[in-house]
Amino acid sequence: MNPRISMITLGVKDLQKSVAFYEKGLGFPRIDSSPGVAFFSLNGTWLGLYNRDALAEDIGIEARGNGFNGVTLAHNVASNEQVDDVMAQAEKAGANIIKPAQTVFWGGYSGYFKDLDNHFWEVAHNPFLWIGPED
């Protein structure tokens, strides 16, 4: 297997609100998609938004569930200041700040927010490992 994550699909309760959060609130570039689903380009992978109940049905599981499911999504940036900027942008877009950005035990700087459907996002600067453009 050639390891890669080509797409992350999030089950959402209200597609229109979630699209607005990611597209207008966070500035994710939306790409053309059929009705009932939304796709965003993420520099080498894609983010998909799909109705939570329909996604659970496609998998063959119950849609009910709450709490922490053991998964977080991460957005790494090139500086502590950029972490603060992204966290502020997410909060302005309607995200719930779970852990404000701060220096963390491993020597980096990060914070966590939850999107409109309680998906956890970490925004981090890792001074020891940076893979990405200098933005």
TrEMBL record:
Taxonomic superkingdom: Bacteria
Transmembrane regions: none
UniProt domain VOC: residue ranges: 4-126
Entries under InterPro entries matching the protein: Glyas_Bleomycin-R_OHBP_Dase, Glyas_Fos-R_dOase_dom, VOC_core
Gene3D superfamilies: 2,3-Dihydroxybiphenyl 1,2-Dioxygenase, domain 1
CDD domains, sorted: VOC_like
Extent of the signal sequence: none
UniProt-recorded name of the protein: Glyoxalase family protein
